[in-house]
Amino acid sequence: MIDTLGLPIIWDAPVISADTVILHNPAFLKHQSDFGGRIVARDLIVVTHENVLRPGGAAGFDITGCLDQIDRASLALHKRLAPVSAHNRQGVVEWLAQNRGPWDVVEHDWFNIFDGEFSAPSPAPSDRRGRLSRPGFEKFPAIEILDKCFPPHAQANVILGADMLINTQAARPHWTLLPFGTTAVDGFFDMIDFMVYFTAPTWRESFGRVIAEGIAAGKVVLTDPQTAAPFGDGVVACAPDQVDDLIAGFVAAPKSYARQVARGQDCLSRYSAANFKAQFAKIILTKERAVS
Q1: Which domain covers residue 243, as residue numbers?
Q2: Other beta carbons within 10 Å of 202
Q3: Which of 13, 100, 106, 216 has a 20 to 30 Å separation from 244 between CA atoms?
């Protein structure tokens, strides 16, 4: 869009002035104490890509400090927070109940756009399992959970982003451990039929981009109910103890596997650029009603 309109990109502008200013992910300010510029706007929208609260209610990051920097640096008629999912919204609302300040929350979620191509499911899936994530400790469950999800009897167990497991020598002979970034995402998905994704209990994905990638790649995705929620019945919500039986059922019934992939891709189609454009219009119209 910027290239089409021939608009220049100004990096680190000392003053940002517009009718509507959109600032993505306030967590980028967590390692500094000053925003370093000024914002003048009729409507300032801050998109909360990272969860404000972790499971249990602990702060996901110094959201108060980050928003205070933005507040001090901005002159705006309206200052609003835009959650990216229902779970993300829940944390924002809970935080606002204790720390409202100048902030309101937009009515409609500022969801992630997924406009990638969809791959067809395998007509004969086998028990090939995998997981993909950044290598941080918070992204991985306890080793006992990994053992349940990636057992010796599986035909394949591929873990991309396994730097932590490699470094701590927590490997198993039946696991294929790949450091983050060493294998292309599409190459990783070629190695599996089931994406099995559980994290530490203190972590929750705000949207779950890797879940979306697995669905688009034509795989059945299994994860906890909270992580599965943005994708409805397009993701198999379960506990680690249920993974073996669920995978065995899909392997024994390839048509059921294909139907599950179709449900996932149908749900994922809701996150298209066209749907986001309509949702964005609702957010802007909500602002206009508030101003008039």
Answers
A1: 128-270
A2: 12
A3: 216
- The total number of structural domains in the chain stands at 2
pTM: 0.85
**pLDDT over threshold 50, residue 289:** no
Has residue 290 got a pLDDT over 70?
Answer: no
Beta pairing, strands 156-160 & 128-132: parallel
65 and 180 belong to one structural domain: no
Do both 264 and 287 map to the same domain? no
* CATH number of the domain residue 154 falls in: 3.40.50.2000
Nearest CA to 244 among 94, 127, 156, 102? Answer: 127
**CA-to-CA distance for 268 and 259, rounded, in angstroms?**
14
Do 160 and 256 belong together in one domain?
yes
Report the C-alpha gap between 179 and 172 in whole angstroms.
15
Distance CA 170, CA 186 (A): 26
List Cβ neighbours of 283 (8 Å cut-off, separation of 6 or more).
Answer: 45, 82, 106, 107, 108, 110
Amino acid identity, residue 217?
Answer: A
Measuring CA to CA, which residue among 277, 270, 205, 259 is closest to residue 231? 270
| Type of residue found at 32 | Q
201 in any annotated domain? yes
Please answer whether residues 44 and 23 qualify as being in contact, where contact means their C-beta atoms are separated by less than 8 angstroms: yes
Q: Please choose, from the candidates 130, 132, 128, the residue with its C-alpha nearest in 3D space to the C-alpha of residue 205.
A: 132
